[in-house]
Amino acid sequence: MRRIGVAAACAAFALLASACAPETSSSGTANAPSAGEKVSLSVWSKFSGRELGVLQKVLDGFQAKHPNITVKNQGSQDDDKVAQAIRGGNPPDVAISFSTDNIGQFCSGGAWQDLKAYIARDKVDLNQLPAATRAYTEFKGTRCAMPLLADVYGLYYNKAMFAKAGISEPPKTMSELFEAAKKLTVRNPDGSIKVAGFVPTIGFYANHVQMWAASWGAQWAGQDGKSTLGTDPQWQAMLEWAKKFTDFYGRDKLAKFTAGLGQEYSPDHAFEKGQIAMAMDGEFRTAFIEAEAPKLDYATAPFPVADNKPDLYGGGYTTGTIIGIPKGAKNAGAGWELVKYLSTDPAALQELAHGLKNVPSTVPALQDPVLQKDVHFKTFLDIFANPNLATNPASANGGAYLKSAEDFAISYQSGGVPDLKAGLAKTGTQIDADAQLGS
Fold it and tell me: For residues 195 and 185, what is the distance between their CA atoms, to the nearest angstrom?
């Protein structure tokens, strides 16, 4: 009855965290329910169908350990729906988001609660999380989320095509990638592309600037927080490489070729169909290949790195699913118990990883013998454990800066930018201006 009364009183002040704060202990954390206190805990996520069932099995494990807590698992709920529920004063107790780009808004605006006091109280060791995952679950000192599985990106390559072209090992540098792609490319008699060694088109499948930037060591911002697009030479080198790659194929021929390829998340995916010999992709592609192209002779490796950054090899780009407690959650204490369980318990993470084919997001959970046994998947476990694992920084205005950078990169690659250096500087200035407006 007390919780119902508080929820009703807070309906008109849903965005005022102090008005809707649950009962807390002296440490500033919400109290976990006592063993005899029955609690119903709501969990919202974007999972659906089979994947929602995978999550449910892990939630059943939590309920077995906490028989007084009943978990209601609701799928097909995206960030917008969670935000609407917060504004309406009826948020879920726990929210799972597929977008790390929103972490700046979640933390800075208070939409998701700060977990720092819980972590300190329960002595949760954050060192079990790689630095990159720690980075995409906090913003300017506020940790309002924990990682819940990770997506890790590397190189997929067709072993049969490599053997036919006389290539014995995967490329490790961008120059090697370019040279291998030239050998692997097959053209039709009219010069059009039949098989592409590698598609360099920005925006095609997983070819996004933030994913490439990790392999080039390109920095997004300096210590002053200002964009370094115009000052870090790695950005210019990366885009010049992409443009040279495009020119090798011919812009029009490459555009015609990619227009005829299957969608990224369909059985007609070009790598699965043997239409491209190499591709950047996440660990989840192994599950797609197993289901859709089980006879494909392929291997995985870390993605190549810039020629002048050889020490980065072995690392890569990561992002992932995140979990937190929305503002106004009625059972924040019980919610934290579930957040802690799903994000730090090795068995829970490994069970999720088995079912969803994602990388478990703590270092101890990587030692799962089932995951380690899959040679294709093990590549991504190794990349995740590598100290050069990288991600893009959180921002108060979400992923707006990523869109600005990618829009510019696409324009340059298509021949629409006469002065690359000046264009990068202008884009960086615009990113800074947008950040001021969004902060």
Answer: 5
Residue 13: predicted pLDDT: 28
pLDDT, mean over the chain: 92
What is residue 27's predicted lDDT score, i.e. its pLDDT? 53
Q: Say if residue 126 is in the same domain as residue 166.
A: no
Identify whether residues 32 and 124 lie together within a single domain.
yes
Burial 352-381, CB ≥16 within 10 A → b, else e: bbebbbbbbbbbebbebeebeebebbebbb
Residue 2, pLDDT > 70, answer: no
User: What is the number of domains present in the chain?
Assistant: 2
Q: Are residues 222 and 283 in the same domain?
A: yes
Closest alpha carbon to 393 in 228, 155, 154, 234: 228
Domain final residue pick, 385, 403, 425:
385
Distance from C-alpha of 129 to C-alpha of 73, rounded to nearest angstrom: 26
Beta strands in 199-351 (DSSP E): 276-282, 298-301, 318-324
Tokens 């890790």 belong to: 152
What mean pLDDT comes out for the span 22-30?
55
Per-residue pLDDT at 28: 63
Residue 256: CATH number of its domain: 3.40.190.10
Strands (E), 253-387: 276-282, 298-301, 318-324
| Cα–Cα dist 266/272, whole Å | 10
> What integer pLDDT is reported at residue 439 of this predicted model?
54
Same domain membership, residue 411 and residue 267 = yes
Range of the domain at 59: 2-151+319-385
Same domain, 18 and 147: yes
